[in-house]
Amino acid sequence: MTRPIILAYDGSKNAKHAITTAGELLHGHAVVVHVYGPPPPPAALAPSAGIALAIDPTATEELDQRAREQATNVVQEGVDLAREAGFDPEAELIAGDGVHGVWNAIVTLADQRDASLIVVGHRDLSWIQDKLLGSVASDLVKHTTRPVLVIPAEPE
Question: What gap in Å lies between CA 98 and CA 36, rounded to an integer?
Answer without folding.
Answer: 9
